[in-house]
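Appendix B, Record 12. Input sequence as logged:
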Amino acid sequence: MTKLFVGNLPFSATEESVRALFAPHGTIDSLALINDRETGRPRGFGFIEMSNADAARAMQALNGKDFDGRALKVNEAQARDRSSGGGNGGNRRY
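Logged structural output:
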């Protein structure tokens, strides 16, 4: 199983439209479009999980492809280090 990062999505993209874009390249096991926590608005990227062979085909076919006027960025997602970043070190001020 491969997790793909899909970036530079138009803010008008829906799960249905992204699923329709990737479906010709194989079976989609999971799809998540990321929204801003505070505003609920789309952030312009998401993640798709597909089998290794399907993911490789989708990356080759869709990376750089125009989708509603934006050139998609499709590559293998990198594991995120949850212990770093985040500005204030995880301490929230209320």
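Strands lie at 2-7, 28-35, 42-50, 66-67, 70-71, 73-76.
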